[in-house]
Amino acid sequence: MRILLTWLVFSHLLHADERYEFERPLMGTLFRIQTYAPSQEVAQKASMAAFAEAEAINEVASDYIADSELLQLSKKPTHQPIVVSMRLFCLLEQARHMAVLTDGAFDPTLGPLTKIWRESRRRQKMPAAEMIQQARESSGYRLLALDASKRTITLKASGMRLDLGGIAKGQAADAMLAIFFQHQLRRTSITAGGDVRMGDPPPGQKGWTIGVRALGNDMEETTLTLSDCAVSTSGDLQQAVKIDGVRYAHIIDPQTGLGLSRPVAATVIAPTAAQSDALATACCVLMPEQARALICKIPGCTLRLPDPATESGR
Ligand code: AMP
Ligand code: MG
């Protein structure tokens, strides 16, 4: 009996999963995979397939690649159903769902505004008020209709432009984790810039240790121990621009059409990274009380806002 037990323990140790890590620049950020697998070969195979899926998502959904399927939609006639690829349809369906859930605080149809705003940030000059007004008339998630039975979308105003920048990294992280699950590698974590999606915890641990910048202070980090969920942080710490003495975030306030001009930061824990990514962006747009009320409504979600340190939900 003792020999058998010793042999079992020994063989388990011999075959214990090892930790593997893979990185690739993608979607303007660094994607990092951490996984526990029985061999380098198995881990490598899953990571190649997962990166290929993320690249495919980027190719259809990027608002930087001029001929991406998403940007090509802006050239199509309005008020007519357009058949889109299955991959893009699923991404848009999920994005529109998050827009409805957040009552438009997260809105994937803000493309005309994000385009103008990106240019203003580059030139460090405010956009003309008429341009903003015109772009606002071509924005609003209610102008984007989807029909799942025909896999079509309809753009209901001219000048529309879709932007999945606030959700695509989360969607890619979810898709990548699903591929690791298909390869039976459940002890995996995918980091896509400020968005992390985790499977089961590493062997012998309670969860993955995630460093989250202390909100409102670039220098400090808080650590969270999490598994089987996702966490995203959004804010103006990195991509803000100062124009005429006012600091504007890269996140657009749909009410004004301008970058948010108050300090914003939010960390959201949610069941999936598509949710946490979109919700973190939305919680920056919403005032703290509205953000807390929204997160409390959604099962499995937690919100962390900058000082006064508060948490709600779950
Ligand atoms: P994130 O870093 O996830 O908060 O996403 C920010 C990116 O999402 C921006 O660079 C824009 O491309 C896009 N975006 C800006 N404002 C919004 C908004 N209110 N709703 C949805 N997407 C937005
Ligand atoms: Mg986001």
- The shape is globular
Largest sheet: 8 strands, antiparallel
Second rung of CATH, namely the architecture of the domain at 73-155: Orthogonal Bundle
CATH-assigned homologous superfamily of the domain at 73-155 = ApbE-like superfamily
> How many strand segments?
17
Small molecules held by this entry: adenosine monophosphate, magnesium ion
* Residue share in helix: 25-40%
Determine the mean pLDDT: 92
Strand-and-helix sequence, N→C? Answer: HEEHHEHHHEEHEEEEEEEEEEHHEE
| SS-derived structural category | alpha+beta
The number of distinct helices, counting runs of at least 4 residues, comes to: 9
Structure write-up:
The chain has 314 residues and is of the alpha+beta class. The chain has a domain at 73-155: T-fold (Orthogonal Bundle), CATH 1.10.3980. It is 37% helix and 25% strand. The protein has helices at residues 2-14, 40-61, 69-72, 86-101, 111-123, 129-137, 168-182, 273-285, 288-297, and strands at 18-26, 29-37, 82-83, 144-147, 152-155, 188-192, 195-198, 208-213, 221-226, 230-235, 241-243, 246-248, 252-253, 258-259, 265-270, 302-305, 310-313. The chain has an eight-stranded antiparallel β-sheet. The longest helix is centred in the first third of the chain and has 22 residues, at 40-61. It starts with a helix and ends with a strand. The model is unreliable at 309-314 (pLDDT under 50). Adenosine monophosphate binds next to helix 8. Adenosine monophosphate (AMP) binds next to helix 8.
